[in-house]
Structure formats: structure tokens, C-alpha cells
């Protein structure tokens, strides 16, 4: 009985060992099948990282790198949104991006976003334009968190454009209403309004649901303010022109204004303030086209750069100094160069003007494209002038001979006579000797005793004048006094007693020298 039991136990051990071997082989085969299944369903792409970088050849050859740009404007993220859940990997079919996106469920839709210029419809090809995804219209629902699982699980709450201005949402999303909220705008563009879209059907990565985000190009205004350069009071009514200093181009590739193109024209108000229309960001030149009434054109342009500012209060106001058109007449004595006051001029179409204590007449409120004439009416006593009229023209720019302020110099004169009576020998002015000046009618104009200085006369009429010294007609010298400026001179020489004494003394001295010389010569010969 015992022997039979041992034989039965041996047979059972044999079959048990065989079963274990087969179970092990089956397990190995199952493991190999699972590895093959993973290999078939996953694409090994070395460039896939948790930074959410991918590449697609299905839609516009775009990729997302999520590197931030310095040329961006930041908007604070919305608060209060709850993050959405991620989704598992679904079979993306033949799409080149399979394995990157979370793709669970064939009732979900791939979303492709393009950022365009709101005015031209052109794509804004700029990386770093940042968005958030919310459920509900106008970002009224929760903030959505999307996921990818290769090579590691990664969550995304913000989505950024590539250099081509596009991006995919990293995960397919279910049917429903969504909105994209713009967090970062490129330089030269305003933040986009929330873009609402509704998913109603399942679409794969090859033909995704397309969302277009329009962004309006940023614009700003040029502000100017006019003041009088002398009084600092406001000046109104100046017309300005604005020109593009360079090509003004937006990121969508559109040249908005060409260099040198006139882009606007505006006029200052009663407060001296003016502003342009809204202009695209860029470089501009502001010039005065027409000056305010009675003002000269300011020919100095102002260069302006329009760029992003936090508020309108930070926008610079460009100050222009305006010069009132002015003509200044200066009347001076042609000999002394001293100002002449109380000279009266008639000004065409205006009241007469009189020179002030500085010899000036200042004319303002002059109309453009007008000619003015100043006619001399009267001069102070004994003054004369060979200039009777002065004419000047104010051109269309409010300038006189190219200047906002024109200075007109004019001279007047008196007939002046200088009488010089000198001794014959030394040429010194006579002293203690009587001198007379006669006019054309041989009447004595004045008689005086020499003081050793020249005698000057004013207020004389033109004619012949004669000088007599010492009451001797033989000393008379005459000259024709002309009607001219400057000073005219009549001179005479007179033998005085001192001249005679000097000559006699000189002769005696010379004779003495000769006598001494002869005496010495004789003594030398005797020796």
C-alpha cells in the first residue's frame, strides 16, 4: 500500500513542475506583448520635455517653446479661477504629435490658436504672447489646467505663442464654452479682449478647432502747447503737421506710414493746446505749418517717439515757443550814435508812431503777406535825415527778411562845423586871440577868444562860412558848409608874437653856433 502511494506522488510532482514552467513562459510572453503595445502606442521623441515644446507638420508647421520675450506688456492674471483637471493619453491616430498631448476620449477636440492684427487680419508673428483658458464666456468660469504626460506629467495654466504667433492647447478639451484671457501683449499692441468660443464636436490634431485672437495695434496722441517766447502767455490758432520720421511698421508686417508721409494736421485751441489723432507707435516729426495770427512761423521741428506709457498723464506735452512778428526801428545820431527821441513817423493804416527815450519804435500785430511803410513826419529841432520812407514786408510765414523780429536802423544828423585856428609855427590851437565866424551874408555868427581848443557849431544852415583871426581880414579862410552828416572842419593858421620870437631866437641861436664853429676853426689853423 505504501509503495503505491509513492508512485502516485511522483507523477503529481512531474506535472506540477511542467505547469510552473509553462506559467513562467506565459508571463514572459505577456510582458513582451505589453512592451510591444507600449512601443506601438508611444513615439519616442527626444525633444519632448516638460517645458511643453513640440513640433507639428499638420497645421502650419508650428511649435511652442514658452520662452518669454522682453518686448511684452504684462497684465496681471485673473484671480479666483479653479484649475481644471488633466486628461489621459488618447490614441492620436496618424498625427505627428501623438504622445505629446493628453488625448483621452474621442469626443474631445484639439484647439489651435492664431493671434492676428485686428485691423489687417495678418498674423502677428511674435513669440511670448501669453494666455489663460477659462470655462464659460468672458472668463466667467474656472481657470483650466491642462496636462501632458510625456516624458513626465506636466501641468499648464498659461499658454504662449510661438515665433509664428500661434499655439496648440496641450490637451484636447471637451465640448463646452470657453474663453481665452490675454496676459501678455507684444510691443505695439493692446491687450486682447477675452475671446469666447464653443466646442460642439470632436476634432483631431490634424484638423483642429481654430480660434482667432484679434489684437488692436496700440496708438497714442501727440500733445503740443504754445506759449509766447516773451510773455509766456498761451498762443492759440497755430496749425501743425505731423510726418512719419521713419517707416512706421507693426508686428504683423504692415507698414502703416512711410517715411516722410504726412499723417495728420491739427490746430491749437484757445488754451494754446493741440493734439493729433491717434497714431501708431513709432517716430514722428512735428512741424508748424501756419503760425498763429500776428506770429512768426517756428521753423524748428520737434521729434516725437510714441511708445507705451502706463497712463495718459505720463504722455509728454511738447512745448513750442512762439515769436510775435515785430519790427523795431532804431533812430540814432549819425555822429554821436546817441538815440534820438520824439521823432514822429506815419505808419500806413495805423496811428502815427513816435520814438521813445531809447530812440525806438516797436511795431507788432503785423498781418502776414502785408507790406508796411514808415514815413518820417518830423524830427527834433535841428535834426535832418536823408531817409524819408522805410518799407518792409511780412511774408506768409510772419517773417520779415527771414526773421520773426526785424531790426531797422536809421540815422539822423545835424549840420556840424568845427572851427580850428592854430599858430603858424607849432600848430597849437590859439589862446587869447579873438576869432570870428561869418556866415554867407558876412554877418558874424559868433566871436570868441581862443581857449586852445577846437570850437564846434550846430544848428547852422548850409552855405559859405568864413573864419577870421585877430581882426585881420588877411587871415580869413572860407569853406562851403554842406547839408550832410558827420562834422565838417574849417581851419586857419595865424602868425602870433610867440611865433615871431621863436623864429628870431632860432636865427640868433643858429648864428651863435656858426660863430663858435668859425672861431674854433681859425684857432686850429694858427696852431
Can you put this structure into words, describing what you see?
There is one protein chain. Mean pLDDT is 83; it is low at 1-8, 43-70 and 79-105. 28% of the residues are buried. The protein has five domains: 72-215, Immunoglobulins (Immunoglobulin-like); 219-323, Sandwich (Immunoglobulin-like), CATH 2.60.40.10; 325-412, Immunoglobulins (Immunoglobulin-like, Sandwich); 416-495, Immunoglobulin-like; 501-527. By secondary structure, the chain is mainly beta. The strands form eleven sheets. Strands 1, 3, 6, 8 and 9 form a five-stranded antiparallel sheet that branches. Helix content is 13%, strand content 37%. The radius of gyration is 54 Å and the shape is elongated. It has helices at 2-41, 497-526; strands at residues 72-74, 111-117, 130-135, 146-148, 154-156, 159-160, 166-168, 176-186, 195-199, 209-215, 219-220, 223-228, 239-244, 248-249, 255-257, 262-267, 273-275, 279-280, 282-290, 295-296, 302-306, 317-324, 326-333, 344-347, 353-354, 360-363, 370-378, 389-394, 405-412, 416-423, 431-438, 444-451, 455-457, 463-469, 472-481, 487-494.
